[in-house]
Amino acid sequence: MFIFLKKIFYFFYREFKVNISGFHDILTNITFFFISIFIFIFSIGPQDKILSVMGVSILWTLLLLSSTLSLTKFYRDDFDTGNLIILHLNGFSFEFIAILKTISHFIYVQVPFIISIPIACVLINIPMEKVYSLLISFAIGSFILSCLGSISSSMNLLNKRNYLLGSVIVMILSIPVIIFSVGIINTEENFISLINVLFGILLIIFAINPWATGACLKIALQNN
Amino acid sequence: MKFLLNPNSFQNITNLLFKPILIVSLVLLILGLIFSFYLSPNDYQQGSTVRIMYIHVPSAWMSLMTYMIMVIYSIVALAFRIPFGFIINTAVAPIGAVFTLICIITGSLWGKPMWGTWWVWDARLTSVAILFIIYLIIIFINNSFENRAVREKIVAIFILIGSVNLPIIKFSVDWWNTLHQPASISKLSKPNIDPSMMTPLIIMTLALMLVGISIAILRINTEITNRKNSL
Amino acid sequence: MSLRFQRLLLILVSVIMIFVAVLLILYNGRKNISYFYTPSELASLKIDIDKKVRLGGFVEKNSFIKITASSFKFKISDDLKSIDVAYQGLLPDLFREGQGAVIEGYMTKNNVLNATSVFAKHDENYMPASIKKGLENTGYWNKNY
């Protein structure tokens, strides 16, 4: 049991080192996010009122886009270097690898987005009272996006023709997430119950994720 | 019942059954169209727009049923390693997509005069639109992998994930306030449709089901032959 | 931890998670994805004046007033409360007194809903026109919608 915990610790330590050495990738994601905000600001023009009404929806759309566009890297590196097989030989089942990778993706890709949300809110004039609920909704929603990303990127490991397919899969599955998380920000009375619904969706997808991802990883490794 | 799991006996049986099914389905289709356009009465509120229902409702049922069949065959294929399930998944997905598209188009044709709008984003309509896109993605996955053994398994997994949408479609009108009306026909209660309007609905449902089955037989047989040739 | 034990643990955990999640969603989700509010819900909520709302219910009997050819006034009710609606534009075919409708619009200060669009809602009953006439003639027609 203790050895197993130690292995998990080493997994996260390695992920930390890999992500620090590839820090530019994460920075590119964030830059993409901010540049698309700039583009939105300039394409709407100087009407501040429209921007602050639409702001939350714009932020959510851009967050979804910028976290799905980087999904190809989710399992790709580990798959190409054979790290997945090594993890499996070290006593992790594929399902467990999926959970660990999802958590590490949440920490190293989505948390930087969460940190950069307040700055983005200042840029597009979202009132400061809404930032709090935006942060909560994005903290839950981005974990769901990580789970969906894990599923879709493991599906597309051997897909060498259609690169957009992964993003399409994530986006169609994330529609309920968008509905509820934008609802959270725009409501006052139903705040708690909407958060509960979003949390319920998170639990369902988090429960499905290891099984779907594990099966896809196994298929990809067997047929490579 | 072996022919539902074994490609060879499926081909043998469907070679016999295909022509009768096709003829019966065409006869039923013509009969159903005559019934729904000439022999059925106008509705007391919708007038003759009610006739759109005779194609809308059966195609909606068929789109759900096609997905159910795909779900069952995905489970069978993945759990018991029966490759015939994958053949059915590949062959049947476009049929389901077409039925969903028919359902959406006729629905919005009905909605414009009755509701006063082509499309609203209530729970039922949104979930059916998502079903259509799921069908499209299944077709895309089928066409974007080089390795067939990989793609058919991944399609099956995606079908299982997407099946979360089915109960949402079915119960969306009961759980939430929607613009779409609740189901008229359910097992527990007496149908809210008059018998004179029920007949064309049942005939059209049978007709569309048989048309779908005969197209499916053609596509499945083509798929089986393709796979045999590529071996 | 052996692979088999990991699997067993995961199966257990995911079944519990799905169970909890279904409970959470069923318990909380019912009132949130509604396409429209009913009149009594709308009356109990405090709605901002310039916020778009959707209201659904039955058009109250004897409340429909045609002011000009394209501007109307009517009440939407759910047998408990009723809300005044003013509308300018085209009405759909199915719109009539006693029939369901969904109204999209803004609340004004004197509690009148200023509608921007009106959708007629159809119920799940289908019946030939001739039978309805027969029922009305014999006095069996007592559907109250």
In words, what does this structure look like?
The complex is a heterotrimer of chains A (224), B (231) and C (145). Chain A has 224 residues and is an all-alpha fold. Chain A has one domain. In chain A, α2 runs antiparallel to α3, α6 crosses α10 and α9 packs antiparallel against α10. Chain B has 231 residues and is an all-alpha fold. In chain B, 76% of the residues lie in helices and 0% in strands. Chain B is built from seven helices and no strands. The longest helix of chain B has 36 residues. The radius of gyration of chain B is 19 Å and the shape is globular. The two termini of chain B are 26 Å apart. Chain C is 30% helix and 30% strand. Chain C is elongated, with a radius of gyration of 23 Å. The C terminus of chain C is likely disordered. A five-stranded mixed beta barrel of chain C has the order 1-3-4-6-5. In chain C, a hairpin with a 4-residue loop joins β3 and β4. Chain C has three helices and six strands; from the N terminus they run ααββββββα. Classes of the chains: A mainly alpha (224), B mainly alpha (231), C alpha+beta (145). Chains B and C meet through loops of B and β6 and α3 of C.
Provide a quick synopsis of the model.
The complex is a heterotrimer of chains A (224), B (231) and C (145). Chain B has 231 residues and is mostly helical.
List keywords for this structure.
heterotrimer; B: 231 residues; mainly alpha; 76% helix; C: 145 residues; alpha+beta; OB fold (Dihydrolipoamide Acetyltransferase, E2P); five-stranded mixed β-barrel; 30% strand
